[in-house]
Amino acid sequence: MLSPTPPAPARLHYGWIVAGVTFLILLIGAGVRATPGILIVPWEREFGWSTATISFAIAVNIFLYGMIGPFAVAIIERFGLRRSVCVTLVVVSAGTAATTLMREVWQMVLLWGVVVGAGTGMVANVLGATIASRWFVRHRGLVVGLLTASAATGQLVFLPLLASLVVGQGWRAVSITVALAALALVPLVAWLMRDHPSDLGLARVGEDRVAPTPQSGINPARRALQGLAMGLRSRDFWLLSGTFFICGASTNGLVGTHLIPACVDHGIPEVAAASMLALMGLCDLLGTTASGWLTDRYDPRRLLAWYYGLRGLSLMFLPAAFDHSVYGLSLFAVFYGLDWIATVPPTVSLAGKAFGEENAALMFGWIAAAHQIGAASAAWAAGTMRTNTGDYHSAFLAAGFLCLAATMMALFIGSRPPEAAPATA
Fold this sequence. Notes:
Blueprint: H1 14-34, H2 40-47, H3 51-79, H4 81-98, H5 105-122, H6 125-135, H7 140-157, H8 159-169, H9 171-192, H10 220-232, H11 235-250, H12 252-265, H13 270-295, H14 300-321, H15 325-337, H16 344-355, H17 360-389, H18 393-410
């Protein structure tokens, strides 16, 4: 009697290849966006610009990085993933390289603020949410966590290398390096990126049926504004946007932009300070990936409440950490890094529950816009506080209290408001 033929080994679903390419795109894109954080001090020395002036350009960068998100989702729906991402990477590379020629403040605002901010916004967390929604049903939270971690980690892990370039070769070498890194991704994206599983005759991961490729003939601006109109009528949208505003203010805007200058104020060299940010990035890779895994299994509202509460406590500890030099900062980097942007997977999950799976990426784009408005506000406000008071102490404490407020807001997401009591006769 013949023995049964063993089943063929399962092939790797192409969705994981698309996710891997997206991981690299978000890693490089976020690293480019975060680069001005290590250039504040060199620009002050070379051009004589104040921290407040430079922070304004960074605020424009962060603002556009977020505001372009919902329009990016609509553009991708209209013109396709591969084409949109390739064009964006070329624009980011050209804009970054052109910054080596700037001499005036308006040039800094135009290039680092407008061109790089809008370009990197096209390859931000909304891209990760789009990939997760298009290619995954099972493991979606885990994929969102991984891709979000790459975006946050990209802002941090390259900073020691770039800080060393600033010290050894000058800030223009940094601009050229990140421009080449963005340009190098274009052939890889053109080769491996695909728009939909159905383009390859595949179903999404965890799904048996091959869904037809959706067709979108809607103007991208109209599609994005329709999503905003839907969100403005929703209580959950305001709560999600409010908590994410605080998330941006307490991460990209404050720590991502101003931790290195704050360390320099306390006598800690730029390379050592950048290493603290790199440590945060590595911890975030673990923390945000774990957050995605937890989001697939537990109530995302409670996860958000824990994340914001712990982040608030860590920010309140930061001014005291400077008194213990590198050792105190290392403790802060590990604790804060695990929570750096772990809020994204539960926020994406709650957006999907509130607005439907087909609108999850678009609505997350608008929620992420609130994140970057918060980040831009904090980048400018913290720079102004530093210019007026001479330190960042009050900025760190204010961000800590905001995070504690977000803890309470998170618990009300998805809950129905109590009905009015019936009137008595």
